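Appendix B.2, paired examples.
Example (i):
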Amino acid sequence: MRLRFSTAAALAALAALAALVALCPRPASAQDLNVDTAGAGVLIDQALNHSELLENLWHLSDVIGPRLTGSPAARRANDWTAERFRAYGLDARLEVWQFGGTWTRGPIRARMTAPRTHDVTVASWAWAPGTGGATLTGPVVRIDASTPDSFAVYRRRVRRAWVMTRPPSPVWNGDGPAMSAADSQRQRDFVRSVFTPFRDADSSLRARMQQFSNDVPHLLQRAGALGIVVDAGKEHALLNMSGSPNRILPLPQIVAAHEDYVMFDRLLQAGTTPRLAVSITNTLTRDSVPQWNTVAEIRGTERPGEVVIVGAHLDSWDLGTGTTDNGTGAMCTLEAARVIAQSGLKPKRTIRFVLFTGEEQGLIGSRKYAEAHADEADSIQAVIVLDNGTGAITGQALQGRTDLEGLWRAVLAPVASLGADSVVNRTKTGTDHLSFLPYGVPGFNFNQLERGYNHTHHSQSDTYDMAIAADLMQASAVMAVSAYELANLPGMIPRGPQTAPTLVQAVKVSDSLLVKGKR
C-alpha cells in the first residue's frame, strides 16, 4: 500500500523528529564547551567556612571503623552514608550487587624460633586460609618462582617450609642520604621485574606467564609448602594488605614487616636458615553474598536525564580504620553533595554521588555499577573520583584525553587560588573511574598532594589522626565546583573510545591443579 503525505503533514513530522533529536544527549566538540563559573564562589564559601566533613570522617573512621567488603561494618557504612545524604536533602538509595564470598580476619602469631627467638610483625593476606589454629613450624626458604623452569629448580626445597618467592623490596631509608639516579633506576627496575616482567613479550608468552603466576600458590601447595611470606614493602614495620574472593589462595599467605623480611633474606644469604612458627585463625566463605553501593543525587533542572557522577570508594582494608583509603574520598564526596545542596544553586544536569564498595578487591562495585547502567553511558557527562589520600587536590589527570585540556583548565579556573590548577596528561590506575572508560564515558581521578599516602595506604597507620582538615575542605570545594560546572556545560563532553569491559570473574587456575588428592 502506498502512503501519501501532505506538505503540512511532512513538515509536522520533520518538526517532531527534530524535537526528539534535540532531547537526545549529543557530544559537543571540546572547544565548544564554554564553562559557566557563576556560583563557584558560593560553593567555595560553603565548603571552606561551613564544613561538616571532619565530623563525618570521624564517625566513619572511629565509630564504624574498617569497612572490609562483605563485613557487617561495610553495610553499616552504606546505611549511615545514605542517611547522611538524605539529611542533606538528597534522594538516596542502596544499589545491590553480588560479591564472591566473605573473609574475616582472626588471631595471628608469628615467631622466629631460630637462630634466635623473635616475634615477627605479620598479618594474614586477605582471602587466604589460616592454619586452623594450629602452629605450623618450618624453615624459611627463598625461591625464584618467576618462571616454570626457575620454579622447578626449587620445587623440592619448599616442602614443610615458609616460602619467600621474591627478593626484598627496595625500601628507601628516608633518614639517610638522598637517592641517587642509580638508586632510582634500581627501584624502577625492581618494580618492572616484579610487576610487569613480560610487558614487552608477545601476547602468547604473556598469557602463559600470567597463567603460571595464577598457578604458583597451587603449585606450592602441591609441593607441600606451609605457606607464602611476602614483603610489606614499607618502612617502620608498617604492613600492607590486599586480596580478593576472585583469587582465593589455597594455603596461608602472610605479609611480613619489611624489616623482618630483609632480616630473613640476610640470614639466608649468610648461610643461616631462620625457622618460623605461625598460627592463624581466619574465616572464609565461598557463597556469593549481596553488597551495596550508596547512591544519592541532586536532580537537574533542565536535563535531568544527563548525569555527572561524583564518586569514591567506601570500603577499606581492616588493619587500620580506612581513613585515608578511602574515608577521605568518600567523605569529600558526601561533603560535595552537602555543599551543592545547601548552597541554593540548582544544577542543570543531575549530579549523582556514588560511594562504591568492593574497590579494594578489584574495582568490583564500580564495575558492577557501570555494567548495570551500561544503557545510560551516553547520558553520563563525566565521572570524577577522589582516591589518593588526605592531600589537597592539585588538579586533574587527563587520562589520555588531551582534547579536554582546555575544558579542565576552564573548570578549575575558579579554584586555581586554592592550588588546584594543574592539568596534566597522566593516566591514573587502580581506582573506580576506570570502570566507566570501556563504555566511552569520560572518567577522571583528581591528582592530590601525597601527604604520606604511601605510608598509610593499606596499613595499620591508616587512621583518623592522619587526616588533614584544610586539605580535605579544599578537596571538597574543588569537587563541588567541578561537578556543578560539568553539570552546567552547554553540551555533552565528547565520548572516549569504547572497548570490551573487563569481566568480574575469578582468576583462572590450571585445571590440573584443581584435581583433589593429587600431589
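Example (ii):
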Amino acid sequence: MPDGLTRADLPIQQREHIVKRTAWLLLVAVAMGCGAASAQSPAPPDPPPIPTVGAHPRLEIVNQCAANIWAIFTPGGNPSQVAVQQDSGSWFRPYAQQEQFIGTGATAQPAADTMSVTLAAPPSDTGLYFLPGQFIEIVTSANVQNSTPGPTAMITGVSSSPVVAGTVLTLDRTLTVPQDPGNQSTNGKAEIWVDTLVGAVQIPAQTGYWINEPSAAAMISPPPPVDDTTVIISQGMRSPTGDFYSQGMMVQSGPWAGQIYSQGMQMPGGDIYSQGMQITIPGPTTYFQPASINPPPPAPPVPPSGNNSMTFEIPDNGAPSGRFSFFMGCPKNDTDPFNQSPCTLGAANTELAAINTLAEISFGCMFSSDPNQPANQSNCAFNPGSTGPSFPNCQANPNAANCGALGTNDYYDVSAVDGFTFPLRVDVRAQSSAVICNNNSGNNPLPAAEASVDGSMLDLSSCPAEDAGTIYSTDPVQQQLIAGGINLLTRWNASNQPDPNGQAKACIAPYQWFEQDQLGSPADTSPHAANCSNGSCTSSSYYAAEGCDGTNSSTLMYDCPQHSGPQQRVGPHLATPSGPYLIPDGMYAIHNTNYVRALYALGYKGYTWQFDDGVGLLNCPSSAAIGDPQQYTTYTITVCPHGATSNPAQPAQWVFSPATGTCVVSGSGGGPGGGMSYSSLALCQQASMRYVCDDVSQYDPYQVPNALWRADAQATRNRTGYNWPQVRQIVASTPPICQDHDYPAGISPDFVGTDVKLPLCTYYYGGGTSLCPWSPPGG
C-alpha cells in the first residue's frame, strides 16, 4: 500500500467519485429548488495570497483548445464540512476569479450597516447551512435581474443550532441587508446564498494573451503582431496556420477556418484555392472581450510558462480530493461560468451540471511519515478519508483533530464516470527517474514519465448507444425505450431542450439516462433516481453504484448495491411474471455496457464507472525524496491535447496517420496530406486500425474476469491484431457464460471476512476459459 494510505482508507478513496457526485447534485438541486437564477457569481471573498513559502508549483493547466476555457475547481466535502473544504481547496482560492454561490432558501430581515444577519426564514437544509466559516451573499431580485453580485461576508458565529427563523448569524464585516419589495415569493425579503467554494479561473486560448485590469475590458490578441504572409499553394504542403493544403480537407484555423480546400474555389477574402497560385494569408487581428460584471482580481499574473497556461502553487503539506472540470463558451460574452444557463460545453446548473470530463487529483504530503524525522507528518494536512479504530470520529466530523495525516502519495485520474465533454490528458514529471508510480491494483509499476493518463480520444462524435442487449430496466416504460436504442450523445437546442439536431453538449454515462429526463436520445420519460425499498431496487442503483446494502446472508447474493464495486458488477435484476425480480445473473453488469466497452476501444484508460479503480486510478510519490519538498512531482493537465479536436463542441474530421498508426484530427500535424477523412474517431479507427484484446482482470481490485478490445497503434503499424470486421465477428459469435464466482474470504475492501458469491456473465473471446484469443491473425 502507498505510504500513509492504509487498506482501511481505500473505501473512501474509491468512493470519492460517488461522494463528490452526490454532494454536487445536492447543491445543484438546492440551488434550482430555491430559485437560484442568473445573478453573477462574486469574486472570492477574502482570498488568501498566493503562497511564497511552504508551497511549490506542482500543477499546470494548459489550454490547447481553439477558445478560452474556464477551469472549474471543486474541493472535497460539502458546505457543512468547512474544515474539509479548506483542507482540500484553500490553495485554489487565490487564483479564482469567481466562486459559485447558490440559494439556500433562507431570507434575511432588513438591516443597515450591521455585522449580523437575522433569519426571516430558515434554509431548506439546516444541516448544510449555516455554520461558522461559511461565506454568505445577500441577493435581491435586482441582483438577479441586473446580473450583479450582492454583498458578502463570513459567518463567525450562529446563535442557535439547528438554525430557525430568528437565528442570528454573526459576521466578520459590516454589510447592509436591503428590503426586496420586488420579490413576492420571499415576502419582500432578500435571500441568503452560500459560497460552495467551487471556484473558476479563465485560461486563454493558445492564440491570445490575457491582461488583468480590474476596471477595464480584458484585451485578447495574438502575442506579437504578425504581418501578412504570402505563400504558393502546393498539394500536401503545410499552410501558415498549421493545416496541410489538401483537396477535400477542412481548414482548422486562420481566416479560412471551416472551409473545405477545393480546386478553383473562392475562399473568404477573395483568394482562389488553386494549385501553384500565390495567395496572401492576412495576419491575425486584435479583438476585445467585454468587461466582466465582476472584473477579475489583479492576481494572478499571466504565468511565465506560456500565455495559454497557468501554474498553481500547491501546499507542501498536501491537498486531498480535488477535481477540475472545464467549460467553454459561457453566457454573457464568456464571463459567467456559473450562470443558470449552460455554457456551450459544461454547465453549473441544469441536468448537464454533473456531466464533465474530470481531472481529479489529490496532492500528497511531501514530509516524512517517520515521526522521528524532523519533517514528519505532523506538518501534513489531515486525511478526511481516515477510518478504523484509530479515527472513530473522522467520518462523522472530519477535521484535523479527528482524522489522521495525509499520506505521501499523489493520486490522480481522468474520469468519464458521469459522462464526458472535453478531451484531456494528465502528464507527470518527477525530479528523479527513480520515482516509480503505480495504478491502484499495484500490478503496473511505471516511471513517472510513462505514468500519464490519456483522455485525448474522448470525442463526442464517437459517443456510443445502448440497447436491450447491453442495459436493462425493471421499469417497463424505460425498457420499451431501451429496446429502440438509446443514443448517449446529448444534444440541446438554443432553448436548452433536448433536440437530436441541436448542439452536442455531452456524452452521458448510462446511469444518467436512467435518472434524468432531458439527457440522451430519446430522453427518458420515466426517470428514477437510485432507490431501494422493500427488497427491490431501481435499475439506476446498479449503474450508479448507489442504493441500499442488501447482501442476503442465506444465498450470499446481492439485492441492491450501495457504494460497492462488486455489486455494480452484477447489474440490474430481471423482472418475471411470478415475482418482482430474478436473482441477478450479471448479464447487464456495468462493464458489459457499450459505454464502457466503446471508450476502452478508443484507447481511453481512465475511469468509465465508479469503481474502475484498477484501470483508472494512478499514484506517484509527492516527492522524489520524501521530506524534501524541493524534489516535488508535478502534473500537467492539457485540455484539447495534441491529436485531439481543438473545438470539442463541433464535429471534427479524423484522418489516419500511417507513421504513428493512429487516427488524429485533420490539421493537427499528425496526419498525412490527403486520404480519407471520417466524422468520428471511432469510425476512423474501425476503418484503419488493428485491435487487440486486453485481459483487464489483473488490474481489477476484485479480480473479476473481464476482457476488452482496444484499437492499438503498435499492432496497426506491425499489421498484427484484428481488424474491426474480425472483432465484430468474434464478439457476435461469443455468447456470455453466466456463473457464480466464489470469494470464500470475502472481497476487500467492501466485504471482508464474508463468504460471497458474485453472479457474473463473462465473454470468453478466446473460447473455453480464455478471455482473449491466443494468436492474432495479422496480415
